[in-house]
Amino acid sequence: MQVPVRLLVAFKPSVAPALLVAIASSTVVFSATPFLLPAIAADRDVSLSVVGWVSTGQLGGFVAASFLAGRLLRPERHVFIIGAVLGVLANLSSAIAPNLALLTVARSASGLSLGLAAWFGWQAAFGDNERTGDVAVIGPLVGVISAPVLSLLIQTAGVDSLFVVLAGITGLPLLFAHQIDRSVAPIDRGARHGATRAARLILLALGLITMGGSTVFVYAAAIGTGLNGLSAGTVALLFSGNAMAGIPSAKWQGRRGSAGFWFFGTAVCSVLIASVRNDLVFAIGLVGWGFIFFMGLPAAFGLLASRSAFPQERAGDAQAIMALGRVFGPLIGGALLASGSSTSLGIVAAGIIASAALMLLYADRRNLPLRRSSTPGPAVASS
């Protein structure tokens, strides 16, 4: 436990603590998903492919909030409070949901809360390398601690008790709500601009990356315990290793190189996790994923900002398209696992991610022109 504490002490963020707490609490909820799915399946005596709809519902809410927040809302205090309260109510409702259908509805409401939290954090950081690193590092930093704790809670207290704990965690941002401005200047809705050609390609790649990644990653705990025969505690420690490996890469301040090359590495990890039945290979794939993914993600965001005429408008788009990818990923993974082919699972996921990596390489290497907008605005040179 001393390592995470020292990391937190050394962490000097350039983003408001309120936003980081919101991102951290939503990260804990997302971190619970790989452990929740097999537990819900066992608790309600249904298959993993059916339980995948619970994750899909949550991510559907996340997509809606991420996509609409930047278009309809302003980052003001009352919106911040509503998002946190919604998260509390959604998790409490999940704890008492009598059937899978109502649980899916409750998780959809949870997704709305998570999407608002992500939008608050990323809209304040997008386009700034230091701030992007500070927001990106929250995921792995929190994951170091949350993975083993969440696994232990499910084993000892059960799924419903975990939802009650998640309700308390999603309420933590309310303690910092005073740091958020009561009001901000109105946004001229007519001034929003379409994405450039290059930005559209990068957004598509980001959606494919999260779709391919979630095809495997949300089932990684089930694969580790069910197919590899590892204990739940061991898998939880490997998830902590995944998070720990992502900390230095998320905070990396030097040159990252091309995002496309990093995501080719993620494609390889998906094969190691899903298609190879070897404990050591599984561990290398899961832990290596953390380092590689968080080297590639800020690089992809930086590429998106550099290829956008109005990068601040692409922050919500990026979160929405990535969440949309995560909606379909668990459905694909669940169907492949239901067919009994984990080998195909890894290959399909790797193919999707590799296709996205090629798109990023193309956008990076080719100086695609920025589309001129009819609405005057600040000029941003393509690089």
Description of the structure:
The chain is mainly α. Helix content is 75%, strand content 0%. The chain contains 14 helices and no strands. The protein has helices spanning 2-10, 17-44, 48-72, 77-96, 100-123, 129-157, 159-170, 197-217, 220-227, 232-250, 259-274, 279-306, 314-338, 342-365. Helix 8 (197-217) packs antiparallel against helix 14 (342-365). Residues 1-11 and 369-383 have low confidence and may be disordered.
Return residue spans where pLDDT drops below 50 for at least 5 consecutive residues.
1-11, 369-383
Question: Helix and strand string, N-terminal first?
Answer: HHHHHHHHHHHHHH
Q: How would a crystallographer describe the biggest sheet?
A: none
Strand content: under 5%
Beginning-to-end CA distance, first to last residue: 43 Å
Count the strands? 0
Helix content: over 70%
- Judging from the principal axes of the Cα atoms, what is the shape? globular
Secondary-structure-based class equals mainly alpha
Q: How confident is the prediction overall: mean pLDDT? A: 82
**Radius of gyration from the CA trace?**
20 Å
User: Helix count?
Assistant: 14
Give a short synopsis of this structure.
The protein is mainly alpha-helical and 383 residues long. It is built from 14 helices and no strands.
